[in-house]
Write a structure and sequence with these properties.
This protein is an all-alpha fold and 217 residues long. It has two domains: 1-58, Orthogonal Bundle (Arc Repressor Mutant, subunit A); 60-216, Tetracycline Repressor, domain 2. 80% of the residues lie in helices and 0% in strands. α5 packs parallel to α8 (162-183).
Length: 217
Amino acid sequence: MKASSRLAKKKMVTAFRTQEILAAAREVLGRRGFAEMTMEEIAGAAGVAKGTLYLYFQSKDELIQALITQVGELMLQDIEAIVEASDPPPEKIRRVASLLLDYLVRERPLFPAYARDLLREGRGAAKGYWNRLQEMEEKFVELVTRVFAEGIAQGLFIPANPRLLTFLLRGLVRAVGYYQMSEGQGAAVKEALPVLLTLISVGLTPPAKDLEEVAIV
């Protein structure tokens, strides 16, 4: 076997094993929580020796950071698909908000670690991870700002700084995440969904007079 083929096979095995470990960590995290989960439990769930696990991830924090990165990348793909769709801007914003809340429910055990890293502003986190997290945050802002700018240009949203509106939306969603975390139950997001969507719809919609002028134009 050529050296290039061996290297490619090794990379494939490494990638596959990494995904297995992350899946196992997600399962243990959901069952035990971040504080209680151990590397030994994760190794057992992944079917590898504890020493092997440490070859892939040197600590529990590093493993959680990999999960946060994985979730963030998937979420950005979903948001980008919404942004590129042909729906009108108000529908896109509603879909983005609903998607973000859905991620809060699905990734509920992961949110405390994500919130902790944000509050610490990367202190104590690996530099590569923190840089990637910031890149994903900025990509989110870039995508959603495009939708707000489009809606403002069409007269469908109030005239405001579209980047500011994106930060406000992100802040509202994070507030729901903190609410869910403090209340300790997943129904918090279900309770918050209609409230958040109403706030977005009412708060972004221009006065009826302005909408009539847009329709005439």
